[in-house]
Amino acid sequence: MIKYAAIRSGRSLKGLQITIFGKQRKISQEISYSYPPDIEFANNLDVWVNLQDVSFDGKDDILVNLGQYGNQMIQYYDCFVWDETKGQYCKDESFRQIENPQINNEKRCVFSSSRISAASYSYKRFEFIEGHFIETAVLTQTFRASKQPPLFTEKQYVKGRGWVTLHKDVPVDKINRDWLSIIMK
Predict the structure, then answer these.
(1) Is there a contact between 112 and 100 (Cβ–Cβ < 8 Å)?
(2) Torsion of CA 20, 23, 24, 28, to 10 degrees
(3) What's the per-residue H, E or C state across the chain?
(4) What are phi and psi of 13, to 5 degrees?
(5) Does pTM surpass 0.85?
(6) Which tens digits make up the pLDDT trace of 91-108?
(7) How far apart are CA 90 and CA 97, in angstroms?
C-alpha cells in the first residue's frame, strides 16, 4: 500500500511525501520527493503517484507524474524502482528520458513514442538492464505524399557493435512485429 501527500510552500508545489506500507500496515519506507527544478507549471500539475511494475521483476515500482509538455503533450514520469538488494525503492533517473512510456508486460519492455516533425514519428524500446532503462531499439516512421503508405527505418543496439540499421525506408510489413501496437496508423 502507498500513500502520498503534496508538499507546498505557500501556494507553490515543491514535492511529495510518499509513504510505503508493508505487512500489517507498518511503514516500510518514506520518500521525500522534490520535483525537478526544470519542471514547468508545477503548480498546475496533476499530483499523482502510480504503482506499476516497469522493471519487470514482479514488484510494483513507483511512477510520479511530471506532466505533459509541448504542443504534442509528451508525458514524462519520475520513477522509483524496487531494489531487492537494498530492500527499498530507489530513484531511477533513466526513466525520465522515456517519452509517453507504454509498458509492455509481454515483451518486458517500455515503448516510447513522440513526434519528430509533421511528417515523422519516433518510437523507442527501453529495457531495464543492470539497474537502468537502456534504449535498445528505435523505429522512425516517415509519412510521404498523401495516399502513399509511410516508410520505416528500424535500428537496434547490438552490444559490441553499437547501433545497427536493420531496415531503411521499408513498408510496415518488413519491420519487427513488436512495433505494431504503438505505431501511428
Answers:
(1) yes
(2) -40
(3) CEEEEEEEECCEEEEEEEEEECHHHCEEEEEEEECCCCCCCHHHCCCCEEEECCCCCCCCEEEEEEEEECCCCEEEEEEEEEECCCCEEEEEHHHHHCCCCEEECCCCEEEEEEEEECCEEEEEEEEEECCEEEEEEEEEEECCCCCCCCEEEEEEEECCCEEEEEEEEECHHHCCHHHHHCCCC
(4) -80, 125
(5) yes
(6) 999 999 999 999 999 999
(7) 17
The residue with cell 502510480 is: 50
The dihedral sign for the CA sequence 57, 58, 60, 64: positive
pLDDT tens digits for 5-60?
988 877 777 889 999 998 888 999 999 999 887 775 555 567 889 999 999 999 99
Asked if 92 contacts 77 with a C-beta cutoff of 8 angstroms, the reply is: no
| Cell output for 7 | 508538499
Question: Of 92, 162, 150, 164, nearest to 122 (Cα)?
Answer: 150
Q: Check: CB of residue 184 under 8 Å from CB of residue 169.
A: no
CB 142 within 8 A of CB 160: no
